[in-house]
Every structure is written in structure tokens, then in C-alpha cells.
Predict the structure.
Amino acid sequence: MLRVVKPKNARSKRAMLAREPQEVEPAKTAIFVKGSTTGERLNGVLRDLMALKRPNAISFSKKNAVHPFESTDSFIFWAQKNDAPLFLVGTHSKKRPHDLTLIRMYDSRVLEMLELGVDAYVPMSDFSGRKPPPGHRPLMTFDSPLFDTHPRFQQVKSLLLDLFNGEQIDGITLAGLEHVVQVSLGPLPASFTNESTEGKDLPPVHVRCYAMRFLASGQRTPRVELEPIGPALDLSLRRHQPPDEDLWRAATRKRKLEKRDVESGLGRKRKNVAVDEGGDMVGRVHVGRQDLGKLQGRKVRALKEERGAKRRRVEEGQMETEE
């Protein structure tokens, strides 16, 4: 049970208010923790992911005897002390080799956990591409419909977006896009179904990082080429802990709009207007019924009848009627 600390002065009160949930959250800090046994592969994975997360990353250099799915007391203490809602824990054992656990916190409590196995890894040092500078927000792509329909892969997408997400911005220039993080799935196992939750029945997750190069195209929009910069990860899904419904509802709750915001139109649902997956606003326009009988088409000379052809056709019709 954590003790409740009351502010002693105005400065400490402002610091405590800054740690409370905000309407627009700043960039989340991630803590990288090494277990009692890690190995060269996990050390490289934590080092490369921390390089992509900087400057919002904290590394624990000492090894810690932690087991996330057995006890979370250490993470609650570290989250409150460092004001960090994300943890990446690397552990290695004979039963679960090269184990990487992603932990998300809310209000100094564990919200959800996801355990991944690092099956293959290529470090950033093996690639000669231009590395992204610290603090840049990557462009992320998820190349499978399962990331929007399957609950296990929905959790993977949510945690990865939270990990690589930076400051909330309204827009970005084309020159501000430095690198891309691509997340895709491997071939589906024969035992896979929409209700599959076990790791052995789920396809592996491939994470690839690319640097963006803008080349001349002769047009206003440049030609974009992707250059691999690493790291390259092949991950398999293992254990997971879904979020508690009450805690998830509290974490995703939105503030009540004030009267002046409602009067200005903020929060009002616009009819026939929506936002697609790419973030573009799309709308539906309803047009009234058109009278095509009054439509004036273009008169083409090739379609005109010869002079007297209509009169001859009428006379022939009258003769057939008389007979």
C-alpha cells in the first residue's frame, strides 16, 4: 500500500499536479529493465529500442531479479518514483528464452502486460543506413487486418504505438519524417482461428525499421525510398495479461466539456462526417433526385438523321398498318 504524500509548499503541489492524468499527455517515458539473466541478444534488443525511444528512456544498468507475471511491486514503486508508465523487461530462462515483456501502467498500477519471445534479431550496427536523430516521431504501419480485429494483435498494436509515440502534434511537414517502423505478420499457422489466443497458434510478428530518403521526381511530391536501418525483430506471442475493465475505463475516460466549449461546437457530432484509418476526414454528400428527361445532351452531327429519313419511316409505318 503506497502512502499518500501531501504537498508541503506550492512547488511540490505543482509537481504533483504535473504527474496527474492530463487531457493532452506528454511523451511517455519508458524504463528498460534487465532481469537477473539476459544474454547478448536481449541486451542488444534493449539497447536498440532505447536508441529509438530517446530522450524519453531510462535504462537500469544493474540487473534485477524481477518476474512481471508473479510480482509487480517493484514496477509500481519505479513507476511512481520516475513518473514512467511504460516498462520493457528482458529476462532469459530455459523455459522462456529471450523473453521481452512490455508493461503499461496507469495511476501507478499495472494496466496490462504482454510477453514476447525474440526469435530472431539483427542489430542496428549491422546496417549502414542513416540513423534517426533522438526525439523524432516515427511513421508506423501495421500491415495486416488482424491488428484491427484480433484481440491479441490489437494489444500488440496498442502497446507498440504507445512505445514509439512521442509528443502529440496536429501536423508534420514532409521533411520532418525521418524513419518508418513497419509491423507485419508472418504466415498463419494451420491451427489458427479467430478465437486462437495461444502463442503456438498465432503467427509471428515482424518489426522492421527504415530511414526515409526523398529524391527528385520532377513533380512537387518527391519520390520516397526506404533504406533499412535496423533493428530487425521477429517476435512470437507468449503470455499476456489483458487490462481490467474498470481500470481501462478510467484510463480512457475523457474530460467533461465545459459550457463554452459546447457552445463553440467542440465535441458536437457532425452528421455524415468521419475520419478514416489514415486520419483523413471523409464525408457523404446527399444529392436530390435529378430529372434526366430535361438533360440537354451534346448534339453530334454523326448521330443526326438524314433529311427526309424520318418522314419516309413514318410513311412506311402507315403503309404496314393499312395492309
